[in-house]
């Protein structure tokens, strides 16, 4: 029976637990307010204040018909087809066997609502589709069960089982391929603005150069990348204690080690009269390069530590 006091008690307990946690046991009284304000940046992104703006078909293109240049065709259309069968059975209440009609309908409306909202929001990244891909997969499993249960003869049952086996094998092969191929390949429909292995090479090179500097781990490093798009470099360089993160070239951009976004065309080697050298380009993300500059004397000291090539003569 409905009892409003049970609702009041439940909301009171929930509020009490929330206040305790968000205030860190009453040591940060602004915590509950911050827990609400944290959504404001994401609301602005959802409204279009973001570089990740895509048409409404973005998610469905990646799920059902995706092919990168010179890459294989990718489709989880079989999953979508079975999900439609499951939705139809949920709405009509037929062919569900022992499955809960109420839960099947909940999955249907939940999937449609989440997919609709994410489709209408201009901000889109592939990982967002996971929010409706999971219930879609559950509906596909329900659809597969419906197909088997509705088979009226052995011949139809064998044909349905064969189709399900072929479709399932295709999905399994795609899952195997995407799990064993490098995750950063552009042919992967879920790879998007991904960090490339070159960034790890850059971080290792910076730390190796700093190790031969008189200041060691305190060697000054300046990283200049517009729009604060330097992550995850702060993680890779966390052992260094004197790294400056800048979003524009300062009046004095020089330091023993400088990393600059290539699109800024810094030309620090020419501007410094070769007191700094450009020693390499590293691709941070697809089409985005970082240029490494090193003070001449420091670079010379580093090169002297490198293994000498063997003399084949």
Percent of residues in beta strands: 5-15%
Q: How are the strands of the largest sheet arranged?
A: 2-1-3-5-4
Q: What is the arithmetic mean of pLDDT?
A: 88
The geometry reads as extended
Detail the poorly predicted runs: none
Order of helices and strands: HHHHHHHHHEHEEHEEH
Total strand segments = 5
Distance between the termini: 94 Å
Largest sheet: 5 strands, mixed
Structural class: alpha/beta
Instruction: Work out the radius of gyration.
Output: 28 Å
Helix content: 40-55%
The total count of helices amounts to: 12
Descriptive tags:
10% strand, 50% helix, alpha/beta, five-stranded mixed beta sheet, 313 residues, 5 strands
Structure description:
The chain is of the alpha/beta class and 313 residues long. The chain has helices spanning 4-22, 31-37, 40-46, 58-64, 77-92, 101-120, 130-149, 154-180, 197-211, 233-236, 268-271, 296-305, and strands spanning 221-224, 243-246, 257-261, 276-285, 288-295. The protein has 12 helices and 5 strands. A 5-stranded mixed beta sheet has the order 2-1-3-5-4. Strand 1 (221-224), helix 10 (233-236) and strand 2 (243-246) form a beta-alpha-beta unit. Helix 1 (4-22) packs across helix 2 (31-37), helix 5 packs across helix 6 and helix 5 crosses helix 7. The longest helix has 27 residues, at 154-180. It is extended and about 80 Å long. The termini are far apart.
């Amino acid at each position: 029976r409905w009892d409003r006091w049970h609702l009041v008690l439940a909301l009171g307990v929930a509020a009490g637990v929330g206040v305790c946690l968000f205030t860190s046991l009453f040591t940060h009284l602004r915590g509950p307010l911050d827990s609400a304000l944290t959504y404001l940046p994401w609301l602005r992104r959802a409204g279009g204040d973001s570089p990740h703006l895509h048409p409404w078909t973005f998610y469905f293109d990646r799920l059902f018909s995706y092919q990168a240049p010179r890459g294989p065709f990718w489709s989880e259309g079989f999953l979508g087809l079975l999900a439609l069968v499951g939705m139809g059975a949920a709405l009509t209440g037929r062919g569900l066997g022992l499955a809960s009609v109420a839960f099947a309908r909940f999955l249907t409306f939940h999937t449609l609502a989440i997919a609709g909202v994410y489709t209408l929001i201009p901000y889109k990244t592939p990982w967002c589709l996971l929010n409706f891909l999971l219930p879609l997969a559950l509906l596909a499993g329900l659809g597969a069960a419906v197909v088997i249960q509705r088979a009226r003869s052995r011949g139809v049952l064998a044909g349905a089982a064969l189709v399900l086996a072929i479709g399932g094998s295709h999905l399994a092969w795609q899952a195997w391929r995407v799990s064993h191929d490098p995750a950063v390949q552009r042919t992967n429909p879920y790879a998007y603005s991904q960090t490339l292995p070159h960034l790890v090479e850059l971080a290792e090179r910076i730390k190796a150069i700093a190790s031969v500097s008189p200041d060691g781990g305190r060697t000054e490093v300046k990283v200049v990348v517009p729009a604060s798009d330097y992550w995850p470099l702060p993680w890779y360089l966390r052992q260094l204690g004197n790294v400056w993160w800048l979003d524009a070239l300062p009046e004095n951009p020089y330091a023993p080690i400088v990393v600059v976004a290539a699109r800024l065309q810094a030309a620090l080697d020419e501007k410094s009269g070769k007191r700094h050298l450009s020693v390499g380009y590293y691709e941070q993300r697809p089409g985005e390069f970082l240029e490494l500059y090193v003070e001449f004397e420091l670079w010379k000291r580093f090169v002297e530590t490198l293994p000498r090539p063997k003399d084949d003569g």
